[in-house]
Amino acid sequence: MKKIKLMLAFAACGLISQQAISAASWELTSGSNTSPVYGNGRTFTPATGSDPSSVNLTVTAFSATGATSNATSSNTGRNANDTIETAYLSIYTPSAGLGVVNRDGSNTASVAVNSSTGTDANEYVNNGSEHAMDNNGRSDVMLLTFTEQIALQSLKLGWSSGDSDVFILAWSGAAAPVGGITSQLNGKTFSQIAADTASDPANGWRLIDSLSNVGVNTTNFNTSAPVYSSYWLIGTGGFNSAATGGGVTSGDKNSSNNWIAFGSTGASYDYVKLAAVGGSKFTPPPPPPGIPEPGSLALAGAAFLGMVGLRRRKAAA
Fold first, then answer.
1. Is 140:62 a contact under the CB 8 Å cutoff?
2. H helices of the chain, where?
3. Are strands 270-283 and 238-240 parallel, antiparallel or unpaired?
4. CA pair distance 78, 249, nearest whole angstrom
5. Contact 154, 219 (CB under 8 A)
6. Could you tell me the pTM of the whole model?
7. 119: which residues sit within 8 A by CB, 6+ positions away?
8. At 113, phi and psi to the nearest 5?
9. Burial, 279: exposed, middle or buried (Cβ in 10 Å; 0-12, 13-18, 19+)?
């Protein structure tokens, strides 16, 4: 009887199998800049051969332009004073990828422009040095929303100029907050996001990595004990997750490993276009051949124990 119980236990343990990792990628290089409107989104399907093939990705753009004038060069002014607003998610084909055009380039409340009419002469759609996702004057970010939880684990830049430092945040709450995920960006400052990240990373934005000098390459991250989320934030420069004085940084550090302030010696602005991202999700593998499904095993075990009890009663009689 002890031997039989051990066999059932080992069989049951065999059914608690490890989950398999499925890899997928999304190419972000198709679309046009017709009718550019702030707050637009672009949806992408997984690349051919991706598994799972049904997880779609929507990308939207934001920038800290919610102030009366262009941001100061200091980290404090940029992080504490400038609130985040929607921006225009631009695209540059055939291979460069996605950029961000913020509201400084236009004097129209809702429409991005093809030539600057606003406070920043370099912030417009089809040209200008700041039509990429950058941190010159303002800090641009992209919000990635997946239809399922994904461990974002790679990104590819299709174009960069100057420096190419990038940071990645993930929403680590159990679900999107009341009001939607954009409620955790619109009207907030980067200092507020940094404070939330530092105080309770399990229920809000969580810093995943700050990548230095990415260049036009595919770069991996979030590979050890990967974090899974439906919502990811990618921005230029670095990110300092701190309860006070935190927020976006230049992405450059000094010899003491401290962040260098925007506009200071040793700090460079970052200009990038996002061409692709990759990630994975856990999917339970099918049972190995010859091993029944959990429900079938439970029924077989119950029947077997019933037979053992019946034999005992007969022997006692």
1. yes
2. 2-15, 75-80, 190-199, 294-316
3. unpaired
4. 9
5. yes
6. 0.81
7. 69, 70, 104
8. -125, 160
9. buried
Q: Please say if the pLDDT value at position 316 is more than 60.
A: no
- Taking the chain, what is the end-to-end CA distance rounded to the nearest angstrom? 20
Instruction: Give me 94's structure tokens.
Output: 């055939």
3 state DSSP class of 13: helix
Measured in whole angstroms, the distance separating CA 184 from the mean position of its chain's CA atoms is 14
Which residues fall within 8 angstroms of residue 98, CB to CB, at 6 or more apart?
Answer: 28, 42, 59, 61, 89, 90, 91, 92, 133, 142, 273, 274, 275
Residue 17 has pLDDT above 70, yes or no: no
The structure tokens 């051949």 sit at 289
Query: Rounded to whole angstroms, how far apart are CA atoms 123 and 117?
Result: 9
**H or E segment to which residue 83 belongs:** strand 83-86
Q: Give the type of residue at 23.
A: A
User: How far, CA to CA in Å, does 29 sit from each of 19, 32, 42, 93, 290?
Assistant: 32, 9, 11, 6, 46
Handedness of CA 271, 273, 276, 278 (dihedral sign): positive
Apex 142 CA angle, 101 and 153, nearest 5: 145
Phi, psi of 120 (to 5 degrees): -120, 110
> If we measure between CA atoms, which residue out of 227, 208, 218, 222 comes closest to residue 167?
208
Token pair 């700050």 is at which residue?
210
Q: Is the pLDDT of residue 266 over 80?
A: yes
Residue 298, pLDDT > 60, answer no
Check pLDDT > 70 for residue 279: yes
**pLDDT number for residue 197:** 84
**Cα–Cα distance between 304 and 195 in angstroms, integer?**
58
Q: Strand, coil or helix: what is 78? A: helix
Q: Please state whether beta strands 83-86 and 57-66 pair in parallel, antiparallel, or not at all (unpaired).
A: antiparallel
